[in-house]
Amino acid sequence: MLEVARPLLDQLFQIVAVTGCAVMLSDNEGVILEARSSAGDREMFDKVGLTPGGVWSESREGTNGIGTCLVEGRPITIHRDEHFASRNIGISCMDAPVRDAAGQLVGALDISNCRDDHTMAMGSLIQKIVQDAARRIESGIFRRYFEGHRIIDANLPGGDSALLAVDRDDLVIGATHAARHRFHLTDACLTGCRSAADILGGGEAASFRDSERAVLRRALAQADGNATRAARALGIGRATLYRRMEKVGLTRD
User: Fold this and answer.
1) pLDDT, tens digit, for every residue of 221-244?
2) What is the DSSP code (8-state) at residue 49?
């Protein structure tokens, strides 16, 4: 998560730093792992414990952005006096959950502000930015985990990271949290027992004839239509290639 998130945290901080916000990423226990804040605002954040190593679980701090986001597993904004502890009522926190490649909650992305001029309207705008950044981190984690496999982007309206990972036979072996929710997928559905077409609802069931036709067409295309080269690439004789082409309805040029 950290390898994927660090460059995104830097980009996110560049966007919100001018408003006096700090950017943080916690683990699933509410421990802050990474933080970005400007020098002029850092003392305020350090004073309240919004710094690497700070613990913001709900069991420890009561209602707060990071802890409550982790407990409820959804984006949340805790504005000033909505915090449980009186020492935290000067903070506004905008948070979104971060999930791993298996859809499990692994952390919370937080943007906090300690300035008096931070308004609810500004918080609503920043909340959208936080959610988008959290989705980008999730997408990066998923793509890193399934590196080398084909990734199908079935994103929902609003940009949720609905991604599927498929093996070389087009069987689904992974799905993000958003994809699991959208397509009603369980862990049992992600063991290579369902095809992407089945889950996405596209087309009719594949047949051996269609599959063989596709293989032959690809081989011929890669050989620039040269039957001898195509047959050699497939490990068959040219006569066998012609018989199979005839069988699936492909004509010789």
Assistant:
1) 888 889 999 999 999 999 999 988
2) T
What is the per-residue pLDDT for 101? 95
Mean pLDDT to the nearest integer, 56-75: 95
Q: Are the C-beta atoms of 160 and 178 separated by less than 8 Å?
A: yes
> Rg for the chain (alpha carbons), in Å?
25
Neighbours of 45 (CB within 10 A): 24
What pTM does this model have? Answer: 0.78
| Separation of alpha carbons 70 and 142, rounded Å | 20
User: Residue 5 CA to chain centroid, in angstroms?
Assistant: 11
Q: Give CA 73 to chain center in angstroms.
A: 15
Reported as a single tens digit per residue, the pLDDT across 124-156 is 889 999 999 999 999 999 999 999 999 999 876
Rounded distance between C-alpha atoms, residue 82 and residue 214, angstroms: 60
Distances (CA, A) of 93 to 11, 68, 79: 19, 11, 6
For the chain, give the number of residues.
Answer: 253
Q: For the chain, how are helix, strand and coil distributed in percent, rounded to 5? A: 50, 20, 35
**DSSP structure class, residue 30:** S
